[in-house]
Amino acid sequence: MMETMAEIALTPVSYLVLGEVARRGSATPYDLKVAVAESVGNYWSFPHAQLYKEPPRLAEAGLLAEERETGGRRRRTFRITEAGRRSLQDWLSSPDPGRTELRDLGLLKLAFADLGRPGDVARLARAQAAAHRAHLEVYRTLAALPPDAMVWTLRRTLDLGLAYERLVAEFWERLAADPVLTRTPPSPPSPPAEPARPQRDASDESAGDAVASPGTQVVPDDVAAEGGGVG
Prior knowledge:
Elements: H1 12-24, H2 29-37, H3 50-60, E1 64-68, E2 76-80, H4 82-93, H5 105-111, H6 120-143, H7 152-176, H8 179-182, H9 202-207, H10 221-225
Antiparallel strand pairs: 1-2
Helix pairs in contact: 1-3, 1-4, 6-7
């Protein structure tokens, strides 16, 4: 098949596909899906549908060559071209200026857990610890495979994966055991009692509540003698 070259933007998934095809010699999209799930998919998350879309795109750019069955399931098999190998090697030799990308939902929830309900952090920590312990066991199973079961570069990434999952599991376990999270939260304080109202005298009630008492007043003797008073 003649290789045609077209300028396209290459992404990390592009190089992932080029690398997997180069390592295997040839691969179908399904082969790529299985290989990625057992290796780099443990630390590079992306929609696996891209493994079906990306090889034809790379083939159109001349970085992969495609062969398709004429009958049956008409499977599409891809192999890397010289142009694809050069592109992969250029990418591998270029320095990585970026930092680790991390999208951890557990950490995102922990960051805002002070706004949640009592017990949320402890439940989150227990669930996260269990999940990372389970993933750690998967890595241990892979690490126990014979030395020739994987290339040495994948085994080095597995070493870091083991250390990472162990560290994260221990972090969540310590958080789940934190006594601040396990003790019963204090009851909310009772509202302050209202001050007692003064009791009224019976004579005050007979005078009515609409008009306040004017208080004690002095009546001059001459006015009192005439039968006068306060009007």
